[in-house]
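$ ./design --mode recover --in tokens.txt
reading tokens...
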């Protein structure tokens, strides 16, 4: 349509004006309406697949990091238990009674006025052990233990031998 206003000609088209005013999403939607259904389906399928591919990295990172988070929480709980045990151990070592009892058990410490009685033979578990001699009691020639007789003796003879 041609119109003249004060000597200037303006050429306008009603279809062009309506397309320009409807730019953006509506224009794209109108184009999609003119495309056959099967092609629209393929385009939408392509868009969905592209979005899934772009999100797959983020999804795999999420699951990997959540797995790592569970592992770190487990390690944290273990370290907290270890910390609690270490703090209890420190508090025990700050107690003089514990230190004295430990020294008596491990080093045979005797307090002034006490007498140490050493009983050789079996330890608490029932294995033969001499507290002051950590080497084996084997003879050089035979390689057999010379305490075999003490194991086969009745218990009361072993007690009497330890007192001698």
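writing sequence...
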């Amino acid at each position: 349509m041609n119109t003249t206003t004060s000597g200037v000609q303006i050429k306008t088209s009603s279809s062009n004006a309506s397309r320009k005013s409807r730019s953006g999403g509506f224009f794209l939607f109108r184009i999609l309406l003119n495309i056959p259904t099967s092609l629209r389906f393929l385009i939408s399928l392509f868009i969905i697949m592209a979005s899934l591919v772009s999100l797959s990295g983020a999804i795999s990172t999420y699951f990997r990091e959540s797995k790592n988070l569970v592992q770190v929480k487990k390690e944290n709980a273990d370290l907290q238990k270890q910390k609690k045990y270490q703090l209890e151990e420190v508090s025990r070592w700050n107690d003089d009674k514990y230190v004295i009892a430990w020294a008596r058990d491990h080093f045979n410490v005797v307090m002034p006025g006490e007498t140490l009685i050493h009983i050789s033979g079996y330890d608490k578990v029932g294995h033969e052990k001499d507290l002051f001699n950590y080497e084996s009691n084997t003879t050089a020639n035979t390689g057999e233990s010379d305490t075999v007789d003490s194991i086969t003796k009745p218990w009361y003879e072993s007690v009497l031998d330890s007192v001698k």
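exit 0
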